[in-house]
């Protein structure tokens, strides 16, 4: 069943080129420089009326939603709020008829996410779901939505579902953008970037030997910081969650520039920092943050471009990813972080597919 892979998690990480392909299949509309998401059951006119988007989710799905916030802000210039489902369901969040509420869930059975959906419905809000499991409770109760088509995910640590969610959110942001200020050529650039992702993930997967070397060092740590900014901040959060779930090493994700407002106090020779640092407009700032960590003798692991000499000089380990337009970079940058967590857990002898205290779907509050 695991097709020669040592664990389901590894199989699912390696499936991600296909995952993205399947999430996008039949949904790219090249002649319009846009996407088609028929399951939303909403007309262009209805979607154009939307003034605000709310996402509610838990765990990894919440991280994917955070990437969605950056994407929708960038491509459609709409305000987005990302809520923990467990908070949303008991808050009195302002909603109106121009707010679009989405819940995101791999399993479609997460109790808090279902609670959030029901609360939004109770308040008369049309609700949409981004779900993997066909026919799940959330899929059935939502008014419309988008399936991920990621196939069964067995590993408790979610990997391919995250990639499928981010791919679908890119399609959603593109669609909302094309109903607003995003031009045909800008939309086409996003489509092309997305179409290139499966083979680029394939390249990122080839870096496993470098990742294993970094894993040897991270496996010695008691605590690890994950830092990323802009669209990579949620990727840092996701990398940290993967590490803590399966290797039981404490890890925290932070926006890179927040480091100096507290977490920098933790840095010492035993506390590695993992920087998500592909090139981008803020790269020089990230490099100077890395220098600050080095000045305190903190080990540095970076996810970045193989030909980035400055990053290579400043890092103990570079986990290479190929270059790509920044809207699709999270789909590449998350891959080495999933593999890093996997190899750390393997080195430590942990039960990777069934980590302690966790279940695949959390059906209690
Ligand atoms: O099935 P869901 O996407 O609703 O699950 C949400 C979280 O329980 C889930 O992502 C959890 O955080 C995973 N174990 C993360 O790897």
Verbal overview:
The structure is a single chain. The mean pLDDT is 96. The relative contact order is 0.15. The chain contains 14 helices and twelve strands. Strand 5 (99-105), helix 6 and strand 6 form a beta-alpha-beta unit. The protein has a five-stranded parallel β-sheet, sandwiched between helices. It has a five-stranded parallel β-sheet with strand order 9-8-10-11-12, sandwiched between helices. The protein is α/β, with parallel strands linked by helices and 365 residues long. The site of 5-amino-5-deoxy-1-O-phosphono-D-mannitol has 17 residues, from helix 4 and helix 11. 5-amino-5-deoxy-1-O-phosphono-D-mannitol (M6R) binds next to helix 4 and helix 11.
The side-by-side strand order for the widest beta sheet comes to 4-3-5-6-7
Detail the poorly predicted runs: none
What gap, in angstroms, lies between the N and C termini?
32 Å
Largest sheet: 5 strands, parallel
> What is the tally of helical segments?
14
Q: How do the strands and helices of this protein lay out in sequence?
A:
Blueprint: H1 8-14, H2 16-24, E1 28-29, E2 34-35, H3 44-49, E3 52-57, H4 59-76, E4 80-84, H5 85-88, E5 99-105, H6 111-122, E6 127-131, H7 137-141, E7 144-147, H8 160-178, H9 184-205, H10 208-218, E8 223-228, H11 233-247, E9 250-255, E10 273-276, H12 283-295, E11 300-304, H13 309-314, E12 317-320, H14 329-347
Parallel strand pairs: 3-4, 3-5, 5-6, 6-7, 8-9, 8-10, 10-11, 11-12
Antiparallel strand pairs: 1-2
Helix pairs in contact: 2-8, 2-9, 4-8, 4-11, 8-9, 9-14, 10-14, 11-14
This protein binds 5-amino-5-deoxy-1-O-phosphono-D-mannitol (M6R).
5-amino-5-deoxy-1-O-phosphono-D-mannitol is lined by residues 58-61, 105-107, 110, 113, 156-158, 241, 245, 358, 361-362.
């Amino acid at each position: 069943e695991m097709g020669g892979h040592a664990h389901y998690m590894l199989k699912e990480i390696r499936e991600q080129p296909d995952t993205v392909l399947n999430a996008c299949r039949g949904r790219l509309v090249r002649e319009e420089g846009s996407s088609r998401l028929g399951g939303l059951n909403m007309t262009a006119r209805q979607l154009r009326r939307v003034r605000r988007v709310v996402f509610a989710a838990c765990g990894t799905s919440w991280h994917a939603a955070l990437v969605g916030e950056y994407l929708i802000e960038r491509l459609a210039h709409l305000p987005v709020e990302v809520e923990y489902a467990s908070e949303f369901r008991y808050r009195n969040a302002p909603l109106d008829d121009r707010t679009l509420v989405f819940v995101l869930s791999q399993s479609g059975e997460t109790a808090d996410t279902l609670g959030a959906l029901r609360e939004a419905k109770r308040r008369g809000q049309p609700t949409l779901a981004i779900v993997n499991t066909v026919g799940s409770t959330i899929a059935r109760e939502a008014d419309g939505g988008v399936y991920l088509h990621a196939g069964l995910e067995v590993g408790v640590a979610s990997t391919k579902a995250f990639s499928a969610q981010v791919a679908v959110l890119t399609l959603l942001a593109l669609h909302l953008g094309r109903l607003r200020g995003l031009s045909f050529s800008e939309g086409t650039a996003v489509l092309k970037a997305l179409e290139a992702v499966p083979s680029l993930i394939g390249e990122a997967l080839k870096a496993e030997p470098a990742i294993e070397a970094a894993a040897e060092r991270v496996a010695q740590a008691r605590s690890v910081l994950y830092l990323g900014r802009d669209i990579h901040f949620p990727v840092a959060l996701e990398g940290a969650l993967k590490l803590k779930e399966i290797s039981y090493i404490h890890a925290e994700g932070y926006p890179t520039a927040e480091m100096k407002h507290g977490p920098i106090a933790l840095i010492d020779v035993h506390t590695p920092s993992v920087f998500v640092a592909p090139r981008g407009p803020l790269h020089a700032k990230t490099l100077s943050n890395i220098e600050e960590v080095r000045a305190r003798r903190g080990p540095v692991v970076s996810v970045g471009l193989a030909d980035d000499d400055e990053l290579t000089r400043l890092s103990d380990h570079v986990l290479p990813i190929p270059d790509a337009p920044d809207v699709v970079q999270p789909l590449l940058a998350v891959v080495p972080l999933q593999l890093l967590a996997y190899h750390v857990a393997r080195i430590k002898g942990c039960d990777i597919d069934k980590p302690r205290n966790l279940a695949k779907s959390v059906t209690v509050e």
